[in-house]
Amino acid sequence: MSDTPLTPLEHELAELIINTLELEDVTSNDIDPDDPLFGEGLGLDSIDALELGLALQKHYGIKLDSDAEDNQTHFASLRHLAALVEARREK
Amino acid sequence: MSNKHWSEVKESGSVTGMNIMLGIHRWLGDTGYNTILFFVSVYYWCRNPLARRASRQYQRRLTSAHPDVRLPALATLRHFMAFGIAMRDKVRALHGQIPLNDVQIVDHATLRDAITSGRGGLILVSHLGNHEICQALGTLRPDLKISVLMHTRHAQRFNTLLSRSSGPRPDIIEVSEIGPATAQRLGDRINEGGFVVIAADREPIGLTGRRRALEFMGHPACFPEGAFWLAALLRCPTWFLLCARERSGYKVHFEPLADAGTLKRHERNAWIDQGMQAYADRLEQFCCRYPLEWFNFYPFWAQRTPANEPDATSALQSAESTPPTTRHDP
């Protein structure tokens, strides 16, 4: 259970991550919006990043520009991801 | 210079070198070029024991796994010369100077069906033969939408070469590694029915640290997983493409490899295993047919293995790591 409540968009994204990556034993309530998604936090890996990128494109029409930038900033945490979707969503 | 990698040495002056080669070929023709190439090859053969040993190791493994393969006398020197001829033809192809009559597509029906299916796919090539000749495929089949995934550093060199070219320009997707943005871009091309060419026997582009040891000529060798993961995620077919030199000209082989169209998530790992092994097996079979067209002049079986390599656990880490070396690319 995380201490910080999720915004509706963060909640939606948490569900997207869990469903896309078929994460077992994780609910959106377990994800702290500031925790890292990759490595230590949620423990996603480079394949998950590819899948997440494709899911963001499919659901929100988001086009990522560069791999290095995406990994460093947009995918850092749920909060960062929500900011990306907020700014760049086309659907 | 002597402790440098052979292909690195060749590569260092490659743009000037390639233009000189092209000039020599233009003025002196095949015979003149081959005469000069012979002396250049002897020079490199003497000066580069690492490449010579790699060539010998490859030839030994090939002939011990396939005793029916016959190599000519002075096989490692001829191997070096074959590389020089391939370099010449690579430049000629980029300059649109390979006559289309010299390029024969062996599996034309397969290629036609692949195009008309509208599903697109990933075309996996290798450093066996000369896949640059396949730039000509776009001219032979105008309905084939083809892009080439290339490491940024190679692409820069490639563009310099192309800047003097009059031939048709291939569509190049420049990347430094396969990440989410690349996956999206490739997905777009494939959804439009296009094909993306990726070299799958080395790791200039890959998912950092992701490789598998496969049985190759009776010994385990590491191959990058990247192309197969992309196919699995994009749920598209993969094709094996090879373009090799024969007496009569260039032969293009285009064969189905593995299709991720109906792949389920939990089957991915096994599918990648099978697909990668199928790729390595096809590569090995074609090595038997074109033994001197193998242009991996480095210890191919001595690559880092998954066992001694830390797993790439995070996309963050892989973004921060050093880009893969380009030194193995001729």
Verbal overview:
Chain A: It comes from Larsenimonas rhizosphaerae. Chain A: InterPro entries: ACP-like_sf, PP-bd_ACP. Chain A: Pfam families: PP-binding (PF00550). The complex is a heterodimer of chains A (91) and B (330). In chain A, 35% of the residues are buried. The longest helix of chain A has 15 residues. Helices cover 52% and strands 0% of the residues of chain A. With 91 residues, chain A is an all-alpha fold. Chain A contains four helices and no strands. Chain A is globular, with a radius of gyration of 12 Å. Chain A has a single domain, classed as Non-ribosomal Peptide Synthetase Peptidyl Carrier Protein, Chain A, CATH 1.10.1200. Chain B is α/β, with parallel strands linked by helices and 330 residues long. Chain B has one domain. Helices cover 46% and strands 17% of the residues of chain B. Chain B has eleven helices and nine strands. In chain B, the strands form two sheets. In chain B, strands 1-9-8-2-5-3-4 form a seven-stranded mixed sheet. In chain B, strand 8 and strand 9 form a beta hairpin. In chain B, helix 1 runs antiparallel to helix 2, helix 2 packs antiparallel against helix 4 and helix 3 crosses helix 4. The longest helix of chain B has 34 residues. The N terminus and C terminus of chain B are likely disordered. Classes of the chains: A mainly alpha (91), B alpha/beta (330). Chains A and B meet through helix 2 and helix 3 of A and helix 8, helix 9 and helix 11 of B.
In terms of topology, how is this protein built?
The complex is a heterodimer of chains A (91) and B (330).
Chain A: H1 8-20, H2 46-60, H3 67-74, H4 78-88
Chain B: H1 6-12, H2 14-47, H3 49-65, H4 75-94, E1 103-105, H5 108-116, E2 121-125, H6 135-140, E3 146-151, H7 152-162, E4 171-175, H8 180-191, E5 195-199, E6 211-216, E7 219-224, H9 226-234, E8 237-246, E9 249-259, H10 268-289, H11 315-320
Parallel strand pairs in B: 1-9, 2-5, 2-8, 3-4, 3-5
Antiparallel strand pairs in B: 6-7, 8-9
Protein name (chain B): Glycosyl transferase
InterPro entries (chain B): Ac_Trasf, LipA_acyltrans
Keywords (chain B): Acyltransferase, Cell inner membrane, Cell membrane, Membrane, Transferase
